[in-house]
Design goal:
The chain has eleven helices and 17 strands. By secondary structure, it is an alpha+beta fold. It has three domains: 136 residues, Rossmann fold, CATH 3.40.50; 151 residues, ATP-grasp fold, B domain (D-amino Acid Aminotransferase, Chain A, domain 1), CATH 3.30.470; 67 residues, 2-Layer Sandwich (Dna Ligase, domain 1).
Length: 370
């Protein structure tokens, strides 16, 4: 069996992207951004794409191939290759089988950078796999990934840590099917508008705003198409702000960025199109105008939320600033990471460029003791 020869003096990084979730295209767009910006003098990239069906494939090192296009969302195509992880925890060598059935060794890798969004990647499943085979990786560990992916448990953990969260009610599909009228009456007590969200999805996939009771059934259908349970949240009146977090170096405290703000359009809803496809529903402002004491409190709460879920690597903490103070909306352990996303924008405003941010995350992954 032949073996690829790693580039001497460079760290070998497996860029793992795509995946089985509804956020497949956003993961591909993130891969495009990283492939185009990573420091090639320091890192050699092995692009490994997971198809929508879960096939693990070796992909071209071509940023343009996965760029976000509103007319044709990017996708990992099944090219017939199959990448196999190490069979023992003592090896860091990957193997690829070609479409003709021949195999070759890809050589040892140093670290995996999983830029998977949503289920089957951001939720602890891939993190558990990588720990089983003994490969270092970038980002949150198994526990933080699982907690951060499930909005119900995120809120439960944050509330226990003394952090204010929006009032909510979790509804399972079987409960809604059995008693829709009773559930509707109960969630109406939260007040309108309501937001219906799949418990384990991101990038605003499956999220609906409900302004009146007659809109609830349609919103539940959209949300439950993505997950077996949804959160029905009370609308919170306030500015929508976000803070990016990086893990501390050498066991130090988490580091927090300047604030970014989502400025909503007329419909008051920051949806998938607004985030990624150039829609006019919202704009991003970074750094956001805040008083010094407001920023300090936001950063304190962001670091507390990060540590409350046992965060490592990176996270983005989403807030509302209300008349009564800060309310945490979500924590994202693999936030949007395209060059135009809020997480890189917050760090750029804080003095860390996109290529520098990629380098920092890889180095954090290499030093993190799992």
């Amino acid at each position: 069996m032949t073996r690829d020869t790693p580039a001497p003096g460079r760290t070998r990084v497996v860029l793992l992207f795509g995946g089985r979730s509804s956020e497949h295209a956003i993961s591909c767009a993130t891969a495009s951004g990283v492939l185009g910006a990573i420091d090639r003098d320091r890192f050699e990239v092995v692009p490994v794409g997971i198809t929508r069906d879960g096939a693990v494939t070796l992909q071209p090192d071509d940023a343009a191939l996965f760029a976000l296009d509103a007319e044709q969302l990017p996708e990992v195509r099944d090219n017939g290759t199959r990448v196999r992880w190490p069979e023992t925890a003592g090896s860091r060598e990957l193997t690829v089988t070609e479409p003709d059935g021949s195999s070759r060794l890809l050589g040892e890798v140093d670290v995996v950078f999983p830029i998977l969004h949503g289920r089957f990647g951001e939720d602890g499943t891939v993190q558990g796999l990588l720990e089983l085979v003994g490969l270092p990786y970038v980002g949150a560990g198994l526990l933080a990934s699982a907690v951060g992916m499930d909005k119900h448990f995120t809120k439960t953990v944050l509330r226990e840590a003394g952090i204010a969260v929006a009032p909510w009610r979790t509804v399972r599909a079987r409960e809604w099917a059995a008693s829709p009228e009773a559930v509707a009456a109960e969630v109406a007590s939260l007040g309108f508008p309501l937001f219906v969200k799949p418990a384990r999805a991101g990038s605003s996939v499956g999220v609906s705003r409900v302004d009146a009771p007659e809109q609830l059934a349609a919103a539940m259908a959209v949300g439950l198409a993505e997950d077996v349970k949804v959160l029905v949240e009370a609308g919170v009146v306030g500015r929508e702000l976000e803070c990016a977090v990086l893990g501390g170096r050498d066991g130090g405290a988490p580091r927090t960025s300047l604030a970014g703000e989502i400025v909503l359009g007329a419909d008051g809803f920051y949806d998938f199109e607004s985030k990624y496809l150039g829609g006019d529903g919202a704009g991003l402002v970074c750094p956001a105008p805040l008083a010094d004491d407001e920023l300090a409190e936001m950063q304190r709460l962001a670091a507390l939320a990060f540590e409350s879920v046992d965060g490592t690597g990176l996270a983005r903490v989403d807030f509302f600033l209300t008349d009564e103070g800060w309310v945490v909306n979500e924590i994202n352990t693999m936030p949007g990471f395209t060059p135009i996303s809020m997480f890189p924008a917050c760090w750029l405003a804080s003095g860390l460029s996109y290529p520098e941010l990629i380098t920092e995350l890889i180095e954090l992954g290499l030093e993190t003791d799992r």
